[in-house]
Amino acid sequence: MLDTIHTSQAETVHTRVYRMLRRSLMSGRFSPGQPISIRYLTEQLAVSATPVREALKRLEAERALVAGPNRALMVPILKRRDLRDLRDIRIALEGLAVEKAVERMSESEVAEAARFCGEMDEASRAGDADLYLAANWGFHRAIYRAARSELLMSVIENLWVRVGPFFRLALSDATHMANSMVSHFAALEALRRRQAKAARSAIEADIGNAAADLEKLLTD
Question: In this predicted model, what pLDDT tens digit does every residue of 137-188 receive, in sequence order?
């Protein structure tokens, strides 16, 4: 279920729909291979077809969506080599982001990351995939945003748009959430202690372990 669109005077419906769909992809609300129809989105978001159609065209141009059977747009299906490329690029860029963030995070930003980490832990114990995936993106975003680099954040978000739908697939492994929390708690502790190398190592382990779990489930 997607959230109903609400706009401010400074934001058009088109922009809001586009941002909502990107965030849904990043947080795993859509699954690999899932068709994305205009009718479904207009009903879910309570908007007209025009802003939905424009947002979908924009996401297709960014390769966040691809043409599937009957030319309908769908969430891409990654191959193993694509997953490995994404893993390596994410490790490099997100590792850099967390190192920068350790130096620059305020106490309130560390507390925000801790809140999302707590939500992830609760979701893991309850087996709540939706809450876990939303909190997972919130946790990482809270850290990377503190790097104070709009360009770096933009590139990372584009990577998450591509890999986000596969996070839900990884949750088919019953141990994935619990195992990933080890890395999340390690990253949070390193942030609190202002230990840049330890924080980077924890984030790299989180990315690498998630990719390993996903690779077991891919057929090509």
Answer: 999 999 999 999 999 999 999 999 999 999 888 888 878 999 999 999 999 9
**CA 16 to centroid of chain Cα atoms:** 18
Domain over 13-74 is classified CATH 1.10.10.10: yes
Whole-angstrom distance between the N-terminal and C-terminal Cα of the chain?
Answer: 30
pLDDT in tens, 39-93: 999 998 999 999 999 999 999 999 999 998 888 899 999 889 999 999 999 999 9
- CB neighbours of 176 closer than 8 A, spacing ≥ 6? 170, 210, 213
Q: What is the DSSP letter of 30?
A: S
Strand 66-67 to strand 73-74: parallel, antiparallel, or no bridges (unpaired)?
antiparallel
Q: List the one residue out of 120, 174, 136, 142 whose CA is nearest residue 29.
A: 136
> Domain 80-215 class?
mainly alpha
- Quick one: DSSP state of residue 5? P
Long-range CB contacts (within 8 A, 24+) of 196-205 = 196/98, 196/99, 196/102, 196/103, 197/99, 199/98, 199/99, 199/101, 199/102, 200/95, 200/98, 200/99, 203/94, 203/95, 203/98, 203/140, 203/143, 204/91, 204/94, 204/95
What are the structural domain ranges in the chain? 13-74, 80-215
